[in-house]
Design brief:
Length: 127
């Protein structure tokens, strides 16, 4: 469960970790019993590669623009736009413009692979 129930964008950014290869700042804000909440901010020169995972994902774009691919569907999205990714469907995006791209992901059910990713990122940052 989260240490806070009300999560501001400033809190999310402060708690985020940086992954240099993709140029992304992200944080696992909620690791609940039925879902996980992830905050993501790509630097303008970042890379959101095609990938898939065994859990469903719902996302909301907060800032920036990107050409998003989910399965065979491709569209340019911006602030306020949303997307759904079924389990095991490939998705990723091409960042557009000079602004950071910020979105939130909700994963269900919770995935140990997400927790492991953030633990590895935290240990890389510390060492």
């Amino acid at each position: 469960m989260p240490s806070k129930y009300i999560l501001t964008s400033a809190h999310a950014e402060t708690k985020s970790l940086f992954e240099s290869e993709m140029r992304v700042h992200s944080g696992l804000l909620v690791d609940g019993g039925h879902l996980q909440l992830i905050w993501v901010k790509f630097d303008p020169d970042g890379h959101y590669p095609m990938h898939s995972h065994p859990h469903e994902q719902i996302s909301v774009m907060l800032r920036g623009r990107m050409r998003l691919t989910v399965g065979e569907e491709v569209d340019e999205i911006g602030p306020g736009d949303m997307w759904y990714v079924p389990a095991s469907v490939a998705h990723g995006g091409e960042l557009l413009g000079d602004d950071p791209v910020v979105f939130v992901d909700v994963y269900g059910p919770p995935s140990d692979s997400i927790v492991d990713f953030f633990e590895q990122l935290r240990s890389n940052s510390a060492g």
